[in-house]
TrEMBL record:
Its main location: cytoplasm. Keywords: Cytoplasm, RNA-binding. This is SsrA-binding protein. HAMAP family: SmpB (MF_00023). Residues 142-159 have a biased composition (Basic and acidic residues). PROSITE patterns: SSRP. Residues 142-165 are annotated as: Disordered.
């Protein structure tokens, strides 16, 4: 019976290329999915150098397929005329049941698909895709206030543990 790799070994195989840091601030994350992505050779080489940005990226559903739009992968500097377009649309690879599930949820509610991170998993490029709902300004302020309060609590607990108060 094959032994399942532990979490530490699994994380060692994953190399994060890019993250969308504003996504958790601007959206409430409801569910996450791991999707493969269709790339050309120079895109993979550029990703191995860490040349990617998820800042304006989003995913859409077109004809039963999920496409990642506005993902910026810089041109490979050793590439020739075969280099790729930096902001081309890229197809995401998910199971049909997952796609149908996502399409139903997007149609029913005011939801969107947002990429959270782009990483290598066992040599293959993967995208962590989130089903998300946009936050309003008051929700963002409440999250900031809660985070500040939590930070202040942990700081005070640390001071008490050290005997400073």
């Amino acid at each position: 019976m094959a032994k399942k790799p532990d979490k530490a070994a699994e994380k060692a195989n994953n190399h994060v290329v890019a993250t969308n840091r504003k996504a958790r601030h601007n959206y409430t994350i409801l569910d996450t999915y791991e999707a493969g992505i269709v790339l050309v050779g120079t895109e993979v080489k550029s990703l191995r150098e860490g040349q990617a940005s998820l800042v304006d990226a989003f995913a859409t559903v077109d004809d039963g397929e999920i496409w990642l739009r506005n993902l910026h992968i810089a041109e490979y500097h050793h590439g020739s005329w075969t280099n790729h377009a930096p902001r081309r649309n890229r197809k995401l690879l998910l199971h049909r049941s997952q796609i149908d599930n996502l399409v139903g949820k997007i149609r029913d509610g005011n939801l969107t698909l947002v990429p959270l991170s782009l990483y290598f998993s066992d040599g293959k490029v993967k995208v962590e895709l989130a089903l998300a709902r946009g936050k309003e300004a008051r929700d963002k302020r409440q999250d900031l206030a809660k985070r500040d309060a939590d930070r202040e609590i942990t700081r005070e607990l640390g001071r008490r543990a050290k005997g400073m108060r």
